[in-house]
């Protein structure tokens, strides 16, 4: 076993150093990409110093070119092939999609083993006519928009840009249809763009013209709400809420009032949805609450009605707004007590007036006739 090792080393040295004895699997690169109408060079890497007895090129199982002293291109390849005798390389021109596939070469040196090679060529239609269209370019804030990217070419990949930043998917941003459609829900003033679509394939790329969105938003919405309101037991109290729109008129789609309990829980007590009507959930306030525009009216006030009340208004195109007011409940006279108090005050005034008149009359009599004689 030991005596055979020098012989094996010698054979290995002869195999890797003498021209024509190397493996032929690396004669061609692993894979090539090219564009329709373009050209590709199949560059071979035979053993340095190799001379050729013959060279044969195939596309699949079909012979497309043979050199054996003279050039022999196959039918249909006469004007499309250039052969390089120094390396056995081949240039193929005027490429079509149908030229995609497996290519192989066999180089035969005189008196030596053939050196084969194979590779794959993929031909692509170049990217062109990249264009972005929008479902709308003038939008209200918090609405939605879809941008669609179209392009000529094959095996396309899509990338969306907002200014120079890549757009990625999120809760508000959806990228669908293989990346060619960008949908933004609840647009904000920061979604104006400009948006571009970059399309690429292995042989080319192209970018669309920019599309800029106009987002209409209001700058001067105002909410008027009293920070604290006092209500009296058994009486009616109004928690006033006024929404003042900005430069453009808003359409109020929903008004909702909630009560925040001392434990921090928010209880919905009434919701008004415009034409859909008013709904009042089951709470201890049901039957005693109603909405006038955005204000909340509570009838027959109870001590447990005290707390923080939250009003939420949803308007188009402005969006959602919220305000809070505190209701303080105090004991009062009630309606019957007020009537009694009014009667007492009225009677007191009557007695005061009559007494004043009598005193005035006695003063005049004494002044005119002197003191009244006593018995």
From TrEMBL:
Keywords: Disulfide bond, Glycoprotein, Immunoglobulin domain, Membrane, Signal, Transmembrane, Transmembrane helix. It holds the Pfam family ig. InterPro entries: Ig-like_dom, Ig-like_dom_sf, Ig-like_fold, Ig_sub, Ig_V-set, IgSF_CEA-related, Immunoglobulin_dom. SMART domains: IG. The keyword rRNA processing does not apply. Residues 1-24 form the signal peptide. Residues 126-214 form the Ig-like domain. The keyword Transmembrane helix applies. The chain crosses the membrane at residues 340-365. PANTHER family: CARCINOEMBRYONIC ANTIGEN-RELATED CELL ADHESION MOLECULE 5-RELATED, CARCINOEMBRYONIC ANTIGEN-RELATED CELL ADHESION MOLECULE 8. This is Carcinoembryonic antigen-related cell adhesion molecule 8-like isoform X2. It comes from Gymnodraco acuticeps. The gene is LOC117549567.
């Amino acid at each position: 076993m030991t005596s055979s090792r020098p012989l094996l080393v010698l054979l290995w040295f002869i195999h890797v150093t003498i021209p024509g004895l190397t493996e032929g699997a690396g004669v061609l690169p692993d894979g090539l990409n090219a564009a329709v109408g373009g050209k590709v060079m199949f560059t071979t890497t035979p053993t340095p110093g190799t001379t050729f007895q013959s060279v044969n090129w195939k596309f699949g199982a079909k012979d497309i070119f043979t050199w054996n002293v003279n050039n022999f291109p196959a039918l249909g390849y006469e004007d499309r092939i250039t052969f390089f005798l120094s390396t056995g390389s081949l240039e193929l021109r005027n490429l079509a999609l149908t030229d995609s596939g497996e290519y192989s070469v066999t180089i035969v040196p005189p008196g030596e083993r053939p050196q084969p090679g194979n590779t794959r060529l993929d031909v692509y239609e170049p990217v062109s006519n990249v264009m972005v269209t929008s479902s709308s370019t003038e939008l209200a804030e918090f609405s939605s928009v879809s941008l669609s990217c179209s392009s000529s070419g094959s095996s396309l990949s899509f990338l969306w840009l907002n200014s120079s930043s890549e757009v990625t998917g999120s809760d508000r941003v959806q990228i669908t249809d293989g990346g060619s459609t960008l949908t933004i829900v609840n647009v904000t003033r920061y979604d104006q763009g400009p948006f571009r679509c970059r399309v690429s394939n292995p042989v080319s790329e192209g970018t669309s013209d920019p599309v800029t969105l106009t987002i209409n938003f209001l700058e001067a919405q105002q909410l008027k709400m009293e920070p604290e309101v006092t209500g009296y037991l058994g009486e009616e109290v109004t928690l006033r809420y006024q929404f003042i729109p900005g430069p453009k008129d808003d359409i109020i789609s929903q008004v909702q009032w909630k009560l925040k309990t001392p434990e921090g829980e928010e209880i919905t007590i009434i919701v008004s949805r415009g034409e859909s009507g008013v709904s009042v959930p089951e709470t201890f306030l049901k039957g005693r609450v109603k909405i006038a525009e955005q204000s909340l009216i509570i009838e027959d006030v109870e001590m447990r009605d005290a707390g923080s009340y939250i009003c939420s208004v949803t308007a188009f195109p402005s969006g959602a707004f919220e305000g809070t007011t505190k209701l303080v409940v105090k004991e009062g006279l009630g309606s019957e007590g007020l009537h009694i108090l009014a009667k007492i005050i009225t009677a007191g005034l009557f007695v005061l007036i009559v007494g004043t008149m009598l005193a005035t009359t006695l003063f005049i009599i004494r002044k005119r006739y002197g003191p009244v004689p006593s018995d």
